[in-house]
Write a sequence for this structure.
């Protein structure tokens, strides 16, 4: 059987301190309830500089500059042990500063909904002109509005303000005067998601050297909804992102499944390629403003900086088997079904051991598991523990119950088959998908053979079902054998068949 | 404990009587189990939800405590909780739950 491959990835972060102050739900709810609270007054003292965000080791891991195994060696807490000589640009993407990102929001805005003050816009434009991926796009930014105009949009037209370094530099306007699905707040969230998705997909195209015209389909898997009052989640971020990136031969659609969406999308992209429907499918998602500073109150209480100060984004290219890149084993899929049940044991069985059983594999046959890769620097002070470690312990414990490993080897299993978490707590962003970039390296130039990507999602948050959800898929080192199109057999097998036939013919001729 | 769950506990207690209620927790950490247990006995310690200042004093146990384990079918327990029993800090959770119950539980 020939499987599709992971051909490339893009991973980006955007440092968004002012968006965190004004649009993270923890902060915006606090502002509505207690506008003079001590917490809000303390925010500036607990906000990191762009340089600190770049030097932060987990962020360097996210953009491809510090392998998870190397992150393990950086002393914790990581926010007190910034890396020297850390770079903005990484193997997979970059960490973009807020001012440039506002410019990118303007570039990504098709309806003149982003208004930037002309002086600020000029500076942002100059910076983006020097950006290798956006210098062609800066013409779309226009020349900006006066500060008086920006203030008028906010005061008279319910626009949402954009701040930079505490100063008003622009706004996002509402897109309709009465439609509750097109308020400034929703347009703001959606444009941030769209623009960070654009940034990730731009990097994917750049890093893979892919001809952007060869992208057939885009699956977007963030956690926002775009639409109007008559179709609130109508869509379609995927095509909107593809348009800005210049993928003129692509269409696409949005897939929603809370934090499990990226893994669902990866499997569906693989299915589309394997079925021959499309050759090149991009899975992409931008980040969420609402989750910025989500655990901020705990971080302030523990006298730490607010570490949830970045919006995340990623893009993955799934293509036909090239004989080189890691294959997506579409025959080794795990699913949490409606009937699975909600106990952790039932969940881990359905996602981890059920797919392994299909391939006759043991828990220890998977070299690395990518689970909920939340950064423990963020979650531990907030009382949520070390999320990836808890997942690895559960997988190991199930292995002990199955007899795949000894109980005494549980701790060693967690280290050998696990990784420290490095992803920002942006819901879908940490869920399985952050490791795909490194998996591509580890399964080609590295020494791993099999990894598993696990996505989980809390569907009950939407109040439509009490169920939890999850899917998983195995990625495997490519054997190098590629099937000839439409045959179901590899080229080598065809060669062998021809050699056999020639031998038989020769033997026949000799007899005669 | 989230506000919705506090509301449910409060409503059910009003309907059936506090003496007829038993809260079973599944939290992964002793600290978070303790906070939830405190919420349904002494009231919401964060003073954010419907149980702020409401001392229900309900019976409350964690799924890995022996009181619960001994009361259910061992095969089902092993199938549903056995793995987590291996992963969680059972002693820490039991200690925390006992502390909260001895201090605040009225039933």
């Amino acid at each position: 059987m020939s499987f599709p491959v992971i051909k490339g990835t893009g991973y980006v972060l955007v440092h968004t301190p002012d968006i965190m102050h004004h649009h993270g739900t923890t902060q915006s709810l606090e502002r509505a309830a207690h506008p003079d609270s001590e917490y809000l007054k303390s925010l500036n003292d607990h906000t990191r500089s762009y340089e600190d965000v770049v030097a932060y080791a987990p962020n360097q891991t996210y953009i491809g500059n510090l392998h998870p195994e190397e992150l393990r060696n950086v002393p914790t807490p990581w926010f007190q042990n910034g890396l020297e000589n850390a770079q903005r640009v990484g193997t997979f993407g970059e960490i973009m500063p807020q001012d440039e990102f506002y410019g990118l929001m303007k570039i990504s805005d098709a309806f003149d909904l982003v208004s930037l003050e002309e002086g600020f816009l000029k500076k942002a434009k100059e910076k983006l002109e020097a950006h290798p991926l956006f210098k062609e796009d800066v013409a779309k930014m226009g020349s900006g509005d006066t500060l008086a105009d920006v203030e008028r949009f906010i005061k008279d037209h319910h626009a949402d303000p954009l701040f930079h370094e505490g100063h008003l530099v622009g706004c996002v306007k509402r897109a309709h005067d009465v439609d509750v699905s097109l308020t400034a707040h929703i347009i703001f969230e959606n444009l941030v998601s769209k623009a960070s998705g654009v940034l990730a997909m731009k990097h994917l195209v750049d890093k893979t050297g892919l001809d952007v015209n060869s992208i057939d389909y885009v699956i977007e898997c963030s956690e926002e909804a775009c639409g109007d009052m008559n179709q609130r989640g109508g869509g379609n971020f995927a095509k909107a992102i593809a348009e800005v990136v210049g993928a003129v031969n692509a269409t696409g659609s949005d897939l929603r499944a809370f934090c499990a969406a990226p893994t669902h999308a990866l499997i569906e992209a693989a299915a589309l390629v394997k079925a021959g429907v499309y050759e090149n499918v991009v899975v992409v998602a931008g980040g969420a403003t609402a989750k910025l500073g989500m655990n901020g109150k705990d971080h302030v209480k523990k006298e730490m900086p607010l570490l949830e100060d970045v919006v995340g984004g990623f893009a993955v290219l799934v293509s036909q088997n090239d004989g080189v890149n890691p294959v997506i084993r579409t025959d080794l899929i795990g699913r949490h079904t409606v009937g699975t049940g909600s106990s952790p044991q039932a969940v881990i069985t359905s996602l981890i051991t059920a797919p392994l059983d299909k391939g006759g594999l043991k828990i220890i046959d998977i070299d690395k598991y990518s689970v909920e890769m939340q950064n423990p620097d963020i979650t531990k002070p907030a009382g949520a523990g070390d999320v990836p470690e808890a997942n690895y312990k559960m997988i190991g414990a199930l292995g002990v119950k199955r007899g795949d490993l000894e109980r005494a080897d549980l701790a060693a299993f967690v280290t050998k088959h696990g990784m420290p978490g490095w992803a920002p707590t942006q819901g879908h962003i940490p869920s399985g998908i952050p490791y795909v970039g490194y998996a591509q390296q580890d399964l080609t130039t590295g020494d791993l053979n099999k990894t598993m990507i696990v996505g989980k999602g809390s569907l009950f948050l939407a109040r439509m079902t009490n169920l939890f959800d999850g899917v998983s898929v195995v990625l495997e080192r490519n054997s190098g054998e590629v099937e000839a199109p439409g045959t179901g057999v590899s080229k080598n097998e065809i060669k062998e068949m021809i050699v056999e036939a020639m031998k038989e013919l020769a033997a026949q001729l000799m007899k005669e | 404990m989230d506000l919705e769950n506090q509301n449910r506990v409060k409503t059910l207690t009003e309907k059936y009587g506090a003496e007829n209620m038993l809260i079973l927790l599944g939290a992964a950490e002793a600290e978070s189990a303790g906070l939830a247990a405190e919420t349904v006995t002494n009231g919401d310690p964060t003073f954010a939800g419907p149980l702020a200042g409401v001392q229900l004093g309900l019976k409350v146990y964690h799924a890995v405590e022996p009181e619960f384990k001994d009361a259910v079918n061992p095969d089902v327990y092993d199938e549903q909780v056995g793995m987590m029993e291996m992963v969680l800090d059972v002693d820490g959770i039991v200690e925390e739950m006992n502390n909260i119950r001895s201090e605040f539980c009225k039933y």
Observations:
- Chain B has one domain: 3-104.
- The longest strand of chain B covers residues 22-25.
- The helical segments of chain B are 3-16, 30-39, 66-69, 74-80, 82-87, 90-104.
- Chain B touches chain A through twelve residues (CB under 8 Å).
